[in-house]
Amino acid sequence: MAPITVHEALHSEQPPLLLDVRELYEWRQVRIPGAHHLPMNSVPQHLADLPKDQPIVVFCAHGSRSFGVAYYLRQQGFDAYNLTGGITQWHIQGGEVEVATR
User: Which residues carry out catalysis?
Assistant: First the structure.
């Protein structure tokens, strides 16, 4: 799902859950406000915590890891999508991010 499409969906009547599957050190550096953080390797143990009645947009740094997680979630019955280009493209295309202060 393209960043602009995700941005529009976030302002719809049924906004998606943003799921950040990057590692903790990546999440600490930069993140999308309001996104839920769940490292990729933890997803299988937390399926019960994810909504089945809400779209889920999965993202990582560039979209590779999240592509696999979105596929896995669809196999488990979730309405899941990959954020094309990850948080990198999200930010390049004007999406809001929070950056850690050092």
Answer: 60
